[in-house]
Amino acid sequence: MNKALQTLKERGFFQQCTDIDGLSELMDKGPVTFYVGTDPTGPSLHIGHMVPIFALRHLREAGNIGVVLIGGGTARIGDPSGKTEMRKMITYEQINENVKLFEKQLDNFVGFDGKTAFSDNNANWLADLNYIDFLRNIGSCFSVNKMLSYEAYKQRMEKGLSFIEFNYQLLQSYDFLKLHERHNCCLQIGGDDQWGNITAGIDLIRRKLGSEEKAFGLTFPLVTRSDGKKMGKTEKGAVFIDKNMTSVYDFFQYWRNVADADIRKFLLLFTFLPISKIDEICSGDVNKAKECLAFEVTKEIHGVDEAKKALEGARAAFGGKGDKTAMPTVKIAKANLEAGIGVIDLYAIAKLGGSKSDIRRLIQGGGAQINGEKVTDMQMIVTSTNTDKDGDIILKAGKKKFCRIELY
Q: In whole angstroms, what is the distance from residue 190 CA to residue 192 CA?
């Protein structure tokens, strides 16, 4: 097997391939242009989006050419794959803005140089399609019976599949055809829920350009945690790449708190450490392994400086040895604290515990602490006398959430 494909397999990026021997042989002959698509249906990528983007970097490092297709066109419809209900429609203006945000985030992670890696936008060829011509030239190549046999559609048929979503496979297949023509792209990679769309694209390329045309598909397992739940989800929702939606500290803490059984799998998928180094890490202290995972993933997504700050903040919060200024921090005027702030209001200002009812339950359950001292009185008034030796107030909610109150 080609070395790049072997790397993907060893690291967990391999579920199905349409023709592994043919693809391996083609990659051995020279660079292969491949693509991965992502629809900008929100303002930020989340960590689940990043699995194929990490794979892109592995393939690119092996000498291949990676294209990230941002679905400025397909986002107008929404992919039904893996969804239990139709996506909420958003305006074209929102989609265009999201495209810009995705491009910036992906460029930061991939480093688009226009030669070995670059992005494209399917709005370039989908936005102004003539519907009648599209049905004649593309729709005529698809069998409804075959489309309905794919798992993504079968699942949705039980609850209702809209006609607009039914068209999605035609559009994604057309994307593959256009990228093949524009960039000589002959491989599409993605999650295994995309298998039906990918194989349909390969079939369309061969129908339109000839049966001997080279086109392949490679899918990855859908990443779940050891408890069976979807990776990258918290009680607050998705773990986003945008630090204004998921703070760097919270991003770091997500990885720091993964289950022991997930450490090696996530080190393989979400870092570029050699496998031998990963095995060495996993054979040692489990907490150090989790800290390493959190640091490495945060470094890749947010940069080494931000990763160091998050590490220091976590050590200060949980071990008392790091830099407190790197902890999540909220600034409060000294005058306000001197007048006194109710403990429930203070926790609300720090965004710890959710609603005020949640904060009351937190205190009742013994999960609230100020500078290491448990809060027992819900009527407590916090003043400047509650600051620590550095003039700060460290709030704790439960076992894993901290906030530093800094006075100014």
A: 7
Does the active-site annotation cover 41? yes
What would you report as the CA-atom Rg of the chain, rounded to the nearest whole angstrom? 25
- The answer to whether residue 159 is catalytic is no
- Concerning whether 87 is annotated as a catalytic residue, the answer is yes
Record: fold of 233-326: Tyrosyl-Transfer RNA Synthetase (1.10.240)
Tokens 């009648």 sit on residue: 132
pTM score, whole prediction? 0.84
- How far is 282 from 288, CA to CA, in rounded Å? 9
- Structural fold of domain 3-220: Rossmann fold (3.40.50)
Q: Is 49 a catalytic residue?
A: yes
Considering the candidates 105, 169, 172, 188, report the single residue annotated as catalytic: 172
Residue 230 is among the residues annotated as catalytic for this protein: yes
Q: Let me know if 233 is a catalytic residue.
A: yes
Of the listed 15, 234, 364, 376, which one is catalytic?
234
CATH superfamily of 329-407: RNA-binding S4 domain (3.10.290.10)
Single out the catalytic residue among 41, 105, 199, 219.
41
C-alpha 318/C-alpha 320 separation (Å) is 6
Q: Which residue among the candidates 58, 83, 208, 225 is catalytic per the annotation?
A: 83
Is residue 243 flagged as an active site residue?
A: no
Catalytic residue among 58, 183, 214, 233: 233
Where do the CATH 3.40.50.620 domains begin and end in the chain? Answer: 3-220
CA-wise closest residue to 401 among 350, 355, 349, 326: 350
Q: Which of 46, 57, 183, 206 is catalytic?
A: 46
User: In the chain, what percentage of residues exceed pLDDT 70?
Assistant: 93
Residue 237 β-bridge partners = 234
Per-residue pLDDT tens over the stretch 121-159 = 999 999 999 999 999 999 999 988 888 777 667 666 666
Taking only the tens place, the pLDDT of each residue in 198-231 is: 999 999 999 999 988 899 999 999 888 888 887 7
Element (H, E) at 11: helix 3-11
Element (H, E) at 308: helix 304-318
Catalytic residue among 100, 146, 230, 351: 230
Active-site annotation holds for 302:
no
| Domain(s) of CATH 1.10.240.10: residues in the chain | 233-326
